[in-house]
Amino acid sequence: MKPIYLFSLLTILFSCTEKYTGEVSFKSCKIKYDVLDEKEEFKVDGQHMVGNQWRLESAKQELALCLCEKYL
Question: What is the pLDDT of residues 22-69, one digit of tens each?
């Protein structure tokens, strides 16, 4: 059963593009996230810097949760 989860995770990671388009999707799940331009790449949130890369990673995690809810 574990190889199925690993295969699913790898499929999700490789099917999503690394461009910051503001949206990641797979099958019936679609997650939108905010994209900052290059000049405003980092937004100060208290003490933490949150760039486009981390926004994309968070969106991928939400996408994985969506897929788990729908297909498991």
Answer: 899 998 999 999 888 766 665 555 566 677 888 889 999 999 999 999
The angle, 0 to 180 degrees and rounded to 10, between the axes of the packed helices 2-15 and 52-71 is 140
Domain count for the chain: 1
Considering the entire predicted model, what is its pTM? 0.62
Residue range(s) defining the domain that contains residue 65:
2-71
Phi, psi of 67 (to 5 degrees): -65, -40
Is residue 33 within 8 A of residue 56, CB to CB? The reply is yes
3-state secondary structure 61-72: HHHHHHHHHHHC
